[in-house]
Amino acid sequence: MDRYENCRLLPFEDVTEQSFDMVIGSNFKGAYFTIQKALPLLRKGSSVVINASVGPRKGWPTTSTVSTCKAAVVHLARILSAELVDRGIRVNTLSPGSTDTAMFARFAGQEQGDAVKGVLATSNPSKRMANPSEIAKLAVYLASDDSAYVVGADFLIDGGVAAISPVGA
């Protein structure tokens, strides 16, 4: 199995029950039960940061499974925030846009991966992809005591993809 099978991009009519279960299992079920199992270890002042995506805010073709899962984890964070706030445990989500990661190695050949990265970078209002360290800095903030008043929030870090319309650009 491809290590990036959990973010498989398929047209709606090509999604099989097996590919659906794989995406749901790793992107939603995995997050859900990982947090549940970690809960006994979380003390007052703990912070849970769930990785989501800009995808649920857009209507991108071929993302019917992965974007739906990411929308589910954003809502899960809100529900868990309500359930855990009295214990002093904060839950938030981080919703990155295109980020230059090893995920692009899943394409057949470096040339194709580089082509996809080029399209993503040029279609982004910031005209580039995020560096993973930029995403990590926001995650560190959300995990720190500096964000102690941040509860149940979803943070977009997408170079303006969700906020800026390409119309008129």
TrEMBL record:
Domain of life per record: Bacteria
Signal peptide: none
Keyword match Oxidoreductase: yes
Pfam family, one: adh_short_C2
InterPro entries in the cross-refs: NAD(P)-bd_dom_sf (IPR036291), SDR_DHRS6-like (IPR051122), SDR_fam (IPR002347)
GO molecular function, one term: oxidoreductase activity
Oxidoreductase listed as a keyword: yes
Keywords: Oxidoreductase
Family: Belongs to the short-chain dehydrogenases/reductases (SDR) family.
Protein name from the UniProt record: Short-chain dehydrogenase
Organism of derivation: Phyllobacterium brassicacearum
